[in-house]
Amino acid sequence: MKKIEKDRPLPGHTKLDYYECYAKIVLEEFFSYNNLLLDDKPDLQDIQNSIGIEVTTAEEPKMLEAENLYLKLIYADEDTIREKCINRMGQIGLTYKDGMLLGLSGNDDFTLVNEAINRKIEKLKSAGYKKFNEYQLFIFSSIYAIDSILQEELNFLLRENIDTFFSKIYILVPEALFYFDLGENECKIFNVSRERQYYQAQKARQIVEEVEKEE
To answer: What does the pLDDT look like over 4-34, one tens digit per residue?
Structure first.
């Protein structure tokens, strides 16, 4: 197991999933959840109210590969491994400079989000998931969206009967949280400052680090 170092990205594998911890923090801050349980199938669980919440990401494959390459680069012990990572970054159109990964950008439609939703629906249909009265979905994305696009997405989700699987969908993007309540046929935007998101991200990291320290 890789040692977690201050001011460096978390290793690729930890006892707790960073994104699940981050989603837990956001949901407990913005909604009436209290001490969501970090578990599996589904990822977050509100036992008292019988609500299960799945957590996932909706990013370009290139962006996910870039993140993995960045982690390998940061924790690489050999120069040859570092060189291979940097070369591969160049091949997919990214640049590593002064410790920063440059060239990453978001998208302006819900294609990747909807693909992520469908993947989670297929998993929810499979065996092994705990039974809850209600399931919800939390997605991390870099999408840029305006009110009209959000309304179009809500209409799409309802046409596709996504509400038969997930009653609510949360999409966390830079400086905002998109909230789709499919049961109430509404969508909202919660503005979240960069500073607040940084605090939430650091808090999620602390949860991961604390569990890693445990025997």
So the answer is: 555 455 555 678 888 999 999 999 999 989 8
CB 117 within 8 A of CB 170: no
DSSP codes joined into one string, 37-87:
EE-SSSSEEETTTTEEEEEEEE--HHHHHHHHHHHHHHH--SHHHHHHHHH
β strands within the chain, DSSP E: 37-38, 44-46, 51-58, 95-97, 100-102, 134-141, 168-173, 176-181, 186-191
Q: Give the closest residue to 25 by CA, choosing from 214, 209, 196.
A: 196
Q: Which residues pair with 191 in a beta bridge?
A: 176
Residue 169, helix vs strand vs coil: strand
**What is the model's pTM?**
0.79
